[in-house]
Amino acid sequence: MNLPDSRKNEEALAKLLEESHKIRGVSLWKDAWRRLRRNRPAMASLIFLIGLGLVAFLTPMLPLQSPLDKDLNNRRFLSPSFEPITMGSREGLKFADGKLTSQLALFEAEIAAETAEALAINDPLKQAEQFESIQDRIRVEHPFNQLWNQLGSVSFKMVQIRVAIFGDYAIPSIFGTDKLGRDLLARVFWGARVSLVVGLVATLVSLMIGVSYGAIAGYFGGWIDAAMMRIVDMLYSIPFIFVVIYLVTFLGEESVKAWLESYGIDQIMIFYIIIGAIYWLTMSRVVRGQVLSLRQEQFVESARTIGASPMRIVFRHLVPNVLGIVIVYLTLTIPAVMLFEAFLSFLGLGVAPPDVSWGLLLNDGVEALSSVKLFWWVVIFPGAALAMTLFALNFLGDGLRDALDPKMKNR
Amino acid sequence: MKDLLGFLIRRLGWMAITLWAVYTVSFVLMRAAPGSPFSAERAMPPAIEQQMRARYNLDAPPLQQYWDYMWGILSRGDLSWSIKLEDYSVNQVIAEGFPVSASLAIFALVFAIILGVSAGVISAVYRGTVADVAMMATAVLGIAIPNFVLASIAILLFVFLIPLFPAAGWGTLRQVALPAICLGLPVAAYIARLTRAGMLESLSREHVRTAFAKGLPKRTVIIKHVLPGALLPVVSYLGPATAGVLTGSLVLEKIFALPGMGSHFIYAATQRDTTLATGMVLTYTVLLFVMNTIVDLAYAVIDPRVELE
Amino acid sequence: MTPAPGSQAHSSMTATENATDAPRQGSQPLLQVSNLKVSFKTDEGQVQAVRGISFDVREGETVAIVGESGSGKSVTNLAMMGLIPQPPGRVDSGTALFQGRDLLKMSDRELQTIRGRHVSMIFQDPMTALNPLMTIEQQMTEMTRLHLSLTKKEAAARAVDMLGLVGITSPEKRLRDYPHQFSGGMRQRVMIAMALSCEPELLIADEPTTALDVTIQAQIMDLLADLQERKGTAIVLITHDLGVVAGVADRVLVMYAGRIVEKANVNDLFASPRHPYTLGLLGSLPRFDTDRHEKLLAIPGGPPDMSEPILGCSFSPRCDFVQPVCHREDPTLQLKAEPTGAANLPVVQPHLAACHVEVPT
Fold first, then answer.
1. C262 - beta bridge partners?
2. Which member of A40, A62, B142, C15 has the lowest number of beta carbons within 10 Å of its beta carbon?
3. ipTM score of the complex?
4. Considering CB atoms only, which of A243, A250, A410 is closest to B33?
5. Would an 8 Å CB–CB cutoff place B242 in contact with chain A?
6. What is the dihedral of CA A227, A232, A238, A243, to 10 degrees?
7. What's the whole-model pTM score?
8. Superfamily of domain A43-58+181-404
9. Could you tell me where in chain A the CATH 1.10.3720.10 domains are found?
């Protein structure tokens, strides 16, 4: 080979290299996001869900009526109306001036006086006693606690902000009221909090179990995989709903409840875990299948050659690569879980009052439906809320699937 | 044939293991709950309570109870007496409820498959048309509405407003129809979506192009070359669908006041009728296992590449 | 340059579509495609996949269409047979006369009587081109029963004959097998047997050997050549592999970016390519007779973006011989040389190329 020839080759090589630099790599996620953005229903769903999440989180700050304050005398099954309403105006509450703000001012003044009195006591034992009785009084008589029933500390702060902003104003009962005279709009909003949290937490539980299980089975393969998948097959044939009903009744037992509470575990938490523990089966199968095919890829091989531990390979190299499909399944598991919550609530085994969930509302609504008079609003509004959310989750799931895996796209 | 026999035998073995596991778990859960099943009721004369305890073998040590009960099931198929329905054995309760639940489930599944597959096929063949969009939107709606809401609305519409169906009762086709439809609709919706996706996937396969290139009419291509492949995901969904229908029947039997197993089960579980609940869970497990086995067989029949393991 | 004889003599060599490319002797054209344009609607806009191509196929000859993936060679044939999905695909213009009737204007029902019966196709990947859920028998007989109105028995007997013909041992037994029980090469044999079972006049083979091992490739090509000799079927062979072409084709069309850029008898093309792209293709083909120090040459760059209108020659950005005129004017097919060895060939193809430049030979 002579010199000019090799130089020519080098030039050609340089040209090729330059060309390859011009080809811009588009990351999988960027690409998927670009495709998702073009999918109108999916984007609308995403925006709806983000909005819903925000609203649910901020519910205590919104000018809603109390979701729990009953009025059996005057407000049972009121149809939707725009009649203005003042917070704390119900007679049974006996609020000062029939207003929340006035009562709040009065109550706080009283508490302040009592606290001052307590501070004046010299005997520390008696003083402590006095403080305790003040706390008791707050728990029972604080206007917030009368209207909202034992708010958590964050929600309490949020209600304070709400009163500071909106005062005694509340949105009228545009969704009507239920059989106990409670405002349905407020109940739908507060119910969203529980339903969404159940959906999210239970799905996350199923995610953790399913992904770990599937990834480990897929990575190790061989008899470990065979045994682990056999177990999944077996679990598929167990009618889980029945086991769940067992468990829920078992856990609902007073003594069991007390025993659990002594460990600081409350019932709703158990509820999440149970539901999550059922829905991991499909997730584990999907992840296993993906990992099984990824295992053959070069990057796993190279990770192994540089001495990465199996667990590191599974969770640092394989799991991130199945994230796409996992997200798709997430958006499909959340609706399933929310429906399951509704289903259990219908059977009287789900979220227990005074907590509100959409399932519980729907159950109330359905009970009201079967009576002779048509109280349509008690079922339509919670039903629409649930249906719209599930609708959105389904569309988002479809959109994500199309966006993340164009090969799976069927359009 | 030999493959098939081996497969069935292996499956039977797995079913036995599963049943044993389910039996053990429900035994432990039921017995571990504090108090005796009788404690909730009004005070019982000690003599009667003793008699009752003897009848249910509650005086034996727990392990003994575990073995005795299991032996009773294995040797005589005897699921013991129901604790709350005092004059009935568990076998009797199941024998009464089973036909109701089974026919409800079968009607619902058949309805769901027919409706779902036809909707899915039409939707895929006329992809992008108004019919397609409308059907798929309905399908999502069907998936997004809990079936007890659907059932309640259906009762309101078709029993009270337009009296097409009787409100309750059991036995005639007209009485089965409405609960079966309500039970089947969400499943139909899911099947429609699966079928449509499967059809579109199948339509884009190369062998379908081959079929067209062979000069086969569109109808033949779709029925013979596209549909079988498209139905594979639907077939595998029938296992979970059965579980879903059994689950849903709990709710529908309650709403339509049907004397099926589902209503008994909820009662049994919430009232701590341990024997009845255990018997029912075992029955449902057998049902589900049989259905899953049928599904696997059907899959292997449709797809020759699948071997029965 | 000599004007082409016959009715089209008056049109000059500048006409892309019809003038000089008509072969000057041989039988009547079986298939006559002119000015075919096909486009696809994609996310990036309307992609012109086929930008006006014309060719014809005579009875019993083998025409090879060569080009890299995306050059429009498969789309041309699929469009002709009404097999591109519409939408997103669309035939914008052109005619494809088969035995005098325009395939592009036929109804679905009319096309069905042509497909498989008179024009058969075999596809690239025999792994996916056969229905995995049906036996070979079902797949082979449904066609002959439909087109030739054979009974089930007759159809099965014919299928056995055909399988024997393509070299499958104990065909009676294998009829009841499913595609996954065959190897890749065997499946392609089954595809060929199936495609020929109605004795079509034309066989379109779309990359029939690409997915196969090299040794199997040769066997399949030999089989095709052998069957052609026996049955007299005309073959359109679509491939990106010039090596495959040399052995079997009579005439070669080279496609680039949805156009035919060179058209010649096979020997002329290999002996003296007249288009820089063909030259590049030949340069990237390993040969036995070259110095082993000589490097295989890759054509730098990639094919143009077909969603944009192309200004000038579509190959100009990659061309070693590029002239200023190439960026301005789109060259049309023009006569570059008279065919050599014309007497031995069934069809005589003047050597045409769409290039402004005289490529050194």
1. C254, C353
2. A40
3. 0.82
4. A250
5. no
6. 110
7. 0.81
8. MetI-like (1.10.3720.10)
9. 43-58+181-404
